[in-house]
Design brief:
The complex is a heterodimer. Chain A contains 13 helices and no strands. By secondary structure, chain A is mainly alpha-helical. Chain A has one domain: Orthogonal Bundle (MetI-like fold), CATH 1.10.3720.10. Chain B has 2 domains: 32 residues, no CATH class; 223 residues, MetI-like (MetI-like fold), CATH 1.10.3720. The radius of gyration of chain B is 23 Å and the shape is globular. Classes of the chains: A mainly alpha, B mainly alpha.
Chain lengths: 275, 291
């Protein structure tokens, strides 16, 4: 790290930085700037009118709350799954471990129609829940199910390397000093794991907030009740209301930037703990 | 990993709790991962094998398959080249704005695919910045194939760079510097020193971005205009069929995508196994962050 680039003998500084920055600008920066400029061209009053429209507010609230709910479910169960995968040995563990990545690999639209088929009143799971009066598909509960599917690997894959690196020695030390299992968990393990847990939560939440493909099939998409913010962008675009779509997109972009920042801070905290 | 053979009795849970936790974890994964996967094939074959193959061999399905392959074939190499450039720049040099560059690489992970699609409509659409100019020259980006490729490039943008950067940062630059001092040219350094060190991570990134390119839906949906036989990718075709209540055909096309996903998972596990093996034998010194 003491070298500056002028003293480095390695070739390609100008070429690789130039290419990376040029490509990043073309693919990411200019499109993002287009949204922000379009929004600033709307004027404040028009922008606020659009963004504070009751239907837009309802969609944003729904996206936010369902993403939070799914991220909480994923943090709890993702922790259990990671714990079991890292600490216990059972037949088929490797297979289960690779299955965790399925939501990364399976197209969201495929996940969407599958979950809709599963949880609709005549589906495999829906038909079991129907007699109990539980309706999952075509309502907010269905959205949470879809977002839980999408977000699970983020929690597991963030937590797994940290838990693997941790080893059992700190727990053994705690136990030999007389701590109970619960005490060890709360005072030795959790303080080490919380940055990774929070990072996983934030990643799953960020993904859930913007998710579209897996949700629209199971949500029912009723305005004010089960319409998510990304769907409202698509609806507005289909009605040639570019300004309205841009206003919602701007709000969502700001949320993305905030989450990106939070995730960066959390990941730095997590890596400091590891080293 | 090596510690579990010498697992001490003090630092583990009672057997009942262990079994209970394992059952909870497996039940959760079964309900949320395995069942949806089983449903694809169950629904696709509901009307028998003939109906399945009829749906799969329909000309519109093939047009969609071709378009998806084209988008992936363009987006993945472009992003691989970018990933290599970005990783080389970030890992081998110090420069101002490096952390900003790294943060921006992650941006497509947190941006909603729908917002990504909207961005390209705003730049290239008829009312957009370049729209009038493109229209005068009879070029079509939005509601045409180039838009689909662009949207796919955006959403698969970070994967290769994300895999390579942490690994190359850990590896440092001593080996490359030694090669340069011994008289190797830039290409020789890359092919004979760097590439052998990063090949598995590179392949891993390519597999991930390829899977995402095949499965992208939201961004592509916004820029496509849903023109059948022309701008329909496989995922959009699934949606169209599903919305027309042609469920068997929708699930049949979806089952093709599910097979791609399964192949991806197998390839990923294989790369992880080989990479883990080479890492243990000492040729790869770095670790990889999976997120």
């Amino acid at each position: 790290m003491a070298h500056s680039r002028r003293h480095s003998v390695l070739p390609g500084f100008g070429l690789t930085v130039g290419c990376a920055v040029l490509y990043l600008s073309l693919v990411v920066l200019i499109p993002v700037a287009a949204v922000l400029l379009e929004a600033s061209g709307m004027g404040w009053s028009h922008f606020l009118d659009t963004a504070l429209d009751p239907r837009v507010l309802a969609a944003c609230r729904l996206s936010f709350l369902t993403a939070i709910a799914a991220a909480v479910i994923n943090t709890v169960f993702g922790f259990v799954v990671t714990w079991v995968l890292v600490r216990y040995r059972f037949p088929g563990r490797r297979l289960v471990d690779s299955l965790v990545d399925l939501p990364f690999a399976l197209p969201t639209a495929v996940a969407g129609i599958c979950l809709a088929a599963l949880y609709s009143p005549d589906g495999w799971v829906g038909s079991l829940l129907e007699p109990m009066g539980v309706k999952v598909a075509f309502g907010p509960a269905g959205i949470v199910v879809a977002l839980t599917f999408i977000g699970l690997p983020f929690v597991v894959r963030t937590l797994q390397p940290v838990l693997e690196d941790l080893g059992v020695e700190p727990e053994e030390a705690a136990a030999s000093l007389g701590a109970g299992r619960r005490q060890t968990f709360l005072r030795v393990l959790l303080p080490e794991l919380w940055p990774a847990l929070l990072t996983g939560f934030a990643l799953a939440f960020a993904r859930g907030l913007g998710e579209y493909g897996s949700v629209i099939f199971i949500a029912g998409n009723m305005p004010m009740r089960s319409e998510i913010a990304p769907l409202l962008i698509v609806t507005k675009l289909e009605q040639y209301d570019t300004a309205g779509a841009t206003a919602i997109a701007t709000v969502m972009l700001c949320a993305s930037f905030l989450l990106l920042f939070a995730i960066n801070v959390l990941q730095r905290a997590a890596s400091r703990r590891l080293s | 990993m090596s510690s579990d053979r010498f697992r001490s009795v003090v630092a583990t849970e009672p057997l009942v709790l262990r079994v209970a936790l394992t059952v909870v974890a497996l039940a959760f994964l079964g309900l949320f991962l395995l069942l949806p996967l089983a449903v694809v094939f169950g629904e696709a074959l509901r009307r028998g094998v003939t109906a399945y193959f009829e749906a799969v061999s329909h000309p519109e399905t093939w047009a969609a398959v071709k378009l998806t392959l084209l988008a992936a074939a363009l987006a993945v190499p472009l992003n691989t080249a970018f990933g290599l450039c970005a990783a080389w720049a970030v890992a081998k040099f110090e420069f101002r704005g490096k952390s900003v560059l790294m943060a921006l690489i992650d941006l497509p992970f947190t941006v909603s695919p729908v917002v990504a699609g909207l961005m390209f409509v705003l730049v290239f659409g008829l009312q957009g910045w370049l729209g009038p100019w493109l229209d005068r020259h009879d070029l079509h980006v939005v509601f045409a194939v180039p838009g689909i490729v662009l949207a796919t490039v955006f959403v698969t943008f970070p994967f290769v760079a994300r895999e390579l950067i942490p690994l190359m940062q850990v590896q440092g630059r001593e080996e490359e510097e030694a090669a340069v001092v011994l008289g190797a040219g830039p290409l020789q350094v890359f092919w004979r020193v760097t590439l052998p060190n990063i090949k598995w991570a590179l392949l891993y990134g390519v597999i991930l971005s390829n899977a995402r390119a095949f499965g992208e839906f939201g961004a592509v949906s916004v820029v496509s205009g849903h023109i059948r036989g022309q701008t329909n990718t496989m995922t959009l075709h699934v949606e169209n069929l599903y919305n027309e209540y042609n469920f068997v055909a929708a699930f049949a096309v979806a089952s093709l995508l599910a097979c791609v996903a399964l192949v991806t998972l197998v390839a990923k596990s294989l790369v992880e196994a080989v990479e883990g093996f080479t890492r243990r034998s000492g040729s790869v010194r770095g670790g990889r962050s999976s997120a």
